[in-house]
Specification:
Layout (H helix, E strand, L loop, with lengths): L1 H15 L5 H7 L17 H17 L30 E3 H16 L6 H15 L17 E3 L16 H18 L3 H22 L4 E2 L6 E4 H21 L6 H13 L10 E2 L10 H9 L17 H12 L34 H21 L1 E4 L4 H7 L6 E4 L3 H23 L10 E2 L6 E2 L5 H14 L26 E9 L7 E6 L13 E2 L11 E9 L3 E9 L5 E3 L5 E4 L7 E7 L2
Parallel strand pairs: 10-17
Antiparallel strand pairs: 1-2, 3-4, 4-5, 6-7, 8-9, 10-13, 11-12, 11-14, 14-15, 14-16
Helix pairs in contact: 3-15, 4-6, 4-15, 5-7, 6-7, 6-8, 7-8, 8-9, 8-10, 10-11, 10-12, 12-14, 12-15
Bound molecules: 2-acetamido-2-deoxy-beta-D-glucopyranose.
Amino acid sequence: MQQRTIHLFLVIMILSTPLRALSAGLVLQCATASPFVNYQRRQTGLDAYIETQSALSIKGVLANIGPDGSKVAGAAAGAVIASPTKFDPDYFYTWTRDAALTYKMLVERFIAGDSSLRTKIDQYVSAQAILQGVSNPSGGPTTGGLGEPKFNADLTAFTGSWGRPQRDGPPLRATALILYANWLIANGGRTQALNTVWPVISKDLAYTAKYWNQTGFDLWEEVSGSSFFTIAASHRALVEGSALATALGQPCNGCAAAAPQVLCFAQTFWNGAYVDSNINVNEGRSGKDANSILSSIHTFDPTSACTDATFQPCSPRALANHKAVTDSFRTVYPINRGIAQGKAVAVGRYNEDVYYGGQPWYLTTTAAAEQLYAALYQWDKLGSLSVTSVSLPFFRDLVPSVAPGTYAKGSATYNSLTSAVKAYADGYMAVVQKYTPSNGALAEQYEKSTGAQLSARDLTWSYAAFLTAVERRKSIVPPSWNEPANNIPPTTCSGTPACNARMTFNVRIRTVPGENIYVTGQLTQLGNWDPNSAQLLSAGRYTDSDPLWSATLDLPSETVFEYKYIKKTANGQVVWESDPNRRTTSSAGCGSSGTLNDNWR
Ligand SMILES: *[C@@H]1O[C@H](CO)[C@@H](O)[C@H](O)[C@H]1NC(C)=O
């Protein structure tokens, strides 16, 4: 039964939402990669490779940003194109998440002294202001549209089927822009911060404060539930956004109140051994997912004291999680075979992945390195390193004799642990080096048996991820987001008070005794497309002349959602309505009501 649920769920995902992941994966599952490039087999040392690859990576990022990126002709100013690849897979779009993470890196570089990036950053701000006003399948500017995951390269709406909404985009973009706004305030640009950047940030924060407690698709665009990455990014953005609002004398409605509750909710992803990256969904996976490592590096605060609650890179929980996630790839990829425990391996998204056959990715491999470089920075600042019962297995892989305890900077144990962690982190960069073609191009993935590049070429995020890992390796760190004053979750969690609309679903369909009609769709209340969690309609008013099935359900108000009716036969068979999915908006206002009159199709 369990197996069947998952199978049906996946089938529905494939039929109803041809995602970046699954759709292309199906097309290409039989293709095998040909190792057509010459791989540089570690002829050069790691330091030299990192210098060369860094220069190529910043060029690679800029080549994918409009209006003048050399590989993305036609992209609007400030639009970050995910990859120049337009076919198998088509990534010639601007994703809010990829763009925000890329610009977070660019703003960090700008703050660290690369003033040539100023124009590009201002173009990004303008482009995002435009995108926030574009109505799209996730909603309008104030009705959920900011959760739309991707747009066309000319900044118009993408209207095809997709895994939407994705709620990590607004908080990630807020963080990138808050870094810039804070720099402006400190450098004579307060007016620009207030009049140009804050309006974009404030909309993203309002979205985050309003929707953090609703389900949405994860960063891999496959699972609709609660994603740790989204929640971690939301907490950080609300904390620093609320401080920026105060600095600018502006309101940030709900930011300060929501932040501790988001942190409280974040704690529930910890299952005692690692972070279960997706909850509030039954996706049939272990939950070990690079999602959590990416969360840790995104919310890294250089002034933090290894807090578990905010999953800081040096926290015991994040280190135990690092081991759990990276170990999960040791046996699934042939290129990892024979690599001893404690030595770096190729890292993918999650070990049950089937996209392109389930392969390692560059950006997740560099993330495994980046977390450790960031942790090394934190221990150095703290002046000590603690090994706890939670982090002991992580450290034992590197230094088998280590015992729990706190080791002061300069002590023999501190030195041996930190050099082992540094060597381990460098190992992940060496894996990337080994599987990078000699021209330095970083695609999305590399093949698990041959190491040849796969999927989209010149992935902007691959380059950006390489660059942030290198920055941390050089101890170049972003400003604090004030984690130390915002890292204690409340003792009891509460979600956002429900603002529901009473929606009546009426559908006309002739049925025979034993058959039942249900509604399911992308909302938690509709069972997230899982037929077993669909809502039963009543045939109480069904007549021969009016074959009505009906149900009235409380749904989040003023929310765009997709749905379908399903029929379950007497022997348990599930029959779906034909495509496309139905899409509507629940009525506006808490306690309001609305009616949908549909005919089965
Ligand atoms: C909403 O927040 C509550 C309290 O933390 C939590 O139990 C619940 O799972 C959350 N739901 C979603 C969809 O975020």
